[in-house]
Amino acid sequence: MIKESNIEKKLVVAIVGMTGAGKTEAASVFVSLGWQMIRFGQITLDELKKRNLPVNETTERMVREELRRMHGMAAFAVMNLPKIDALLMKGPVVIDGLYSWSEYKILKERYGDRLQVLAICASPATRHQRLEHRADRHQGDNDKRFRSFSRAESQSRDYAEIENLEKGGPIAMAEYAIVDEGKLEEFQESIRQIISSNFNRQ
């Protein structure tokens, strides 16, 4: 068992936002500055691979919702707690893609004020346009982390995540928020400034 004294000063920053807002780009900035990263959504992709199912919006939604029916709405947080604690032994941790309100409450109970939430916001029109061509911008993505979605699929996913996965709660409770509607370089600089100003406590 990991001793709490070894990790009690390390921050856990959870990045939240709707699909296509820029969460993974934000997490990449944290990683470039030496943070450990865990991606909650990887559980879904691993499960699809285990079942030999294609990666698409329909199968992803089926697995996400099935796992939560089986293990509760906090399933992805509970399943990832051991990984988070192990990474905290190495340094502060950034979480790419905290989804549900129940997951937020589990992490808040575990880490208290050391959990900080950063919301990445972009309009539906901007996000859906990005998602249409996302795979084209990430050639060689063998892990299928950057899938493209049609606008209809993106809207369907938005509705399902808000209605079935409690996704709005963590976004509403975020301590920090950044609007990602401009150039990538400007967004990355905004992330670096937030890290420098608020997350440099080790």
In short:
With 202 residues, this protein is α/β, with parallel strands linked by helices.
Describe it:
The protein is of the alpha/beta class. The chain has a single domain (11-196), classed as P-loop containing nucleotide triphosphate hydrolases (Rossmann fold). 52% of the residues lie in helices and 12% in strands. The chain has ten helices and five strands; from the N terminus they run E-H-E-H-H-H-E-H-E-H-H-H-H-E-H. It has helices at residues 23-32, 42-50, 57-71, 75-88, 101-111, 124-132, 134-137, 151-164, 168-172, 184-198, and strands at 12-16, 36-39, 93-96, 115-121, 176-179. A five-stranded parallel beta sheet has the order 2-3-1-4-5, sandwiched between helices. Helix 1 crosses helix 10 (184-198) and helix 4 (75-88) packs parallel to helix 5 (101-111). The longest helix is centred in the first third of the chain and has 15 residues, at 57-71. It starts with 11 loop residues before the first strand and ends with a helix. Mean pLDDT is 87; it is low at 1-6.
What is the total number of structural domains? 1
Low-pLDDT runs: 1-6
The CATH class is identified as Alpha Beta
CATH architecture: 3-Layer(aba) Sandwich
CATH domain topology: Rossmann fold
Computed over alpha carbons, the radius of gyration is 16 Å
Which percent range fits the helix content?
Answer: 40-55%
Question: Helices and strands: which structural class?
Answer: alpha/beta
CATH homolog superfamily: P-loop containing nucleotide triphosphate hydrolases
Name the average pLDDT: 87
Q: What letter string, H or E per element, gives the SSE order?
A: EHEHHHEHEHHHHEH
Largest beta sheet, briefly?
Answer: 5 strands, parallel
Total beta strands: 5
Portion of residues in beta strands equals: 5-15%
Please state how the strands of the largest beta sheet are arranged side by side: 2-3-1-4-5
